Amino acid sequence: MKIATFNINGVRARIETLTGWLSEAEPDVVVLQEIKCQDEGFPREPIADLGYNIETHGQKGFNGVAILSKLPLEDVTRGLPGDDTDEQARYIEATVVGHRALRVAGLYLPNGNPQPGPKFDYKLAWMQRLHDHARQLLATEMPVLMMGDYNVIPEARDAARPEKWLDDALFRPESRAAFRRILHQGWIEAVRLRDADGSRGPFTFWDYQAGAWQRDDGIRIDHVLLSPQAADLLIDLGIDRDERAKDKPSDHVPVWVDLDA
DNA sequence: ATGGTAGAGATTCTA
């Protein structure tokens, strides 16, 4: 089963980019971030026509996440637990039943800039809530995938030019430490299973500005975290880097895993 | 040191 994460940066503005990739890559399950629309504005029809069930958690203008699946989605939950006053649509979770049941979480972690400030405080508080919930997910002993745009550059080798990110919320020590604290519960970063050495990259995001793509001035901020039970099922993984060179691209590219599930 | 781009929706914010 092929399961992907893709920050689409506006699903209505980029519906042809999305359907083109879905047709080519043929993922079974996709978590989307930054749909930037409300549930009723989501372009369901062209995606349903490709055989996907659709569950959305949107809001007006910003943020918004969704899960697409060729298999039925069960027990869908919306919003990250831990703060009933949080109105930002950044988290969705569902069970996908193939010949094995998987729990899939799609998340859009707060950017946190500028830092320091209230947005950075919100990012760190959100990461603490994710940490608490991630522990509960591991305790289920199901195969779990916790994937999405983490807005965290884990290490210097995850940036083409780490020096320019030193004062950015994506690379601050507090953000990186919070990400590590989640990993240390026992999650496995899929990409690093196959690329564990010290070489630079691969990247998943290139800014639209200043020719970042042309200079390969990228960062790796879209991550797939696997529970041990999910990691045991891993067959293959990839980053669809070529999507960034196509017409009307998102600034992020898809990251996917293939599991024996 | 600055500005460079993009989407949504309102004349600015978020990234």
From TrEMBL:
The active site is at 108, 149 (proton donor/acceptor), 252 (proton acceptor). CDD domains: ExoIII-like_AP-endo. The record marks 151 as: Transition state stabilizer. One of its GO terms (molecular function) is metal ion binding. Residues 4-252 form the Endonuclease/exonuclease/phosphatase domain. Probably binds two magnesium or manganese ions per subunit. It holds the Pfam family Exo_endo_phos. The record marks 252 as: Interaction with DNA substrate. GO terms for biological process: DNA repair. Keywords: Hydrolase, Magnesium, Manganese, Metal-binding. The record marks 222 as: Important for catalytic activity. Mg(2+) binds at residues 7, 34, 149, 151, 251-252. Its cofactor is Mg(2+); Mn(2+). Belongs to the DNA repair enzymes AP/ExoA family. NCBIfam families: exoDNase_III, xth. PANTHER family: EXODEOXYRIBONUCLEASE III. This is Exodeoxyribonuclease-3. It comes from Paracoccus aminovorans.
